Amino acid sequence: MVAAFRAPRHSNSRLAEPVNQNFLANSDAVSCVLTLMSQPLNRIDTSLSLARQSGDAALIPYLTAGFPSPARTLALMEAIERGGADVLELGVPFSDPIADGPIIQKACAEALAAGTSLAGILDIVRQFRRRSQLPLVLFGAYNPFFHYGFAKFVTDAAAAGVDGILVPDLPLEESGEVEPVLRASGLHLIYLVAPTTPADRKHSIAKSAGGFIYYISVKGVTGQRSGAHFELEKPLGELRAVTQLPLAVGFGIGAPAQAAEVGAVADAAVVGSALVDLIGRNREAPDLTEQVEAYIRSMKEPLRGLRKGR
Asked: In this predicted model, what pLDDT tens digit does every residue of 99-151 receive, in sequence order?
């Protein structure tokens, strides 16, 4: 049997614990179980479970959709997959940054100026899905999703091949209306946890989260931090006490050694600003996609086998 994370409360995963006979005696409960079993396993769950089975820490790159242009996003996504990414966060550009540092802020501004839209991003996802099963998470402010029409967005995103969303300005207390809509379409709602998040709030987030929990490694915004040392064992230990979801760590990770440091204690490392910066600096290079593929491979390599026996 393939080793897997136990299905969280709101997961659409079929890898759940056995159901007792009293539960099955209830016809509504049986209907619920059959509905869950009929849903396909979310690609995020599958990919992170396979990484764990292989003893790898997963790599989750972030790419700003539409940067340096909408026409080049698909080729960059494919290069990231060839490099060995386990999940891809596709940033939805918005005019008002939430937690973005200067590199991603600039990329979002250029993407918007180039005409990037949520509808256009979903079209790129459809094209990508014709030849790839790499899990995709849309990462962005709530405003574009709300403006699109949230229920319509979820329907269209699921049909296009999106697997989850991460909305940094959607707090747990205001997610009650959107969670059921996402869950009904098989999409995960992924939450951020910060170093300043209180213990009781971590527990509440863990009960509602799906896919993985994204732990912010530092106080502040996104961006590369050369020579940064990450204090992760205590906060991740506290999270593992309240959830069996995979724990991903991001903010400040840009070099292979940093990815290895994070992967030694976390289930996944997220790289964003360093990748976006590489794309921005080399946008005119004829071998840009090859450079992106090589960079992703260099970040994934130290994560291979790093979690064996952990």
From this structure: 688 999 999 999 999 999 999 999 999 999 999 999 999 999 999 999 999 99
Complete domains list, the chain, with CATH: 42-303 (3.20.20.70)
pLDDT per position as a tens digit, 147-170? 999 999 999 999 999 999 999 999
**Of residues 56, 78, 100, 110, which has the active-site annotation?**
100
Q: Among this protein's residues, is 45 annotated catalytic? A: no
- Terminal Cα-to-Cα distance of the chain (whole angstroms): 19
Q: Which of 89, 267, 277, 293 is catalytic?
A: 89
Catalytic residue list contains 169: no
Name the average pLDDT for the chain.
86
- Answer whether the bond into residue 68 is a cis peptide, omega within 30°: yes
Angle at CA 236, nearest 5°, toward 233 and 237?
A: 75
Residue 78 has pLDDT above 70, yes or no: yes
Among the listed residues 207, 249, 208, 256, the one whose alpha carbon sits nearest the alpha carbon of residue 232: 249
> How far apart are the C-alpha atoms of 281 and 267, rounded to whole Å?
30
Phi/psi of residue 138, nearest 5 degrees = -85, 125
Q: Tabulate helix, strand, coil % of the chain (nearest 5).
A: 45, 10, 40
pTM: 0.85
- Count of alpha carbons within 13 angstroms of residue 126, beta-carbon side: 10
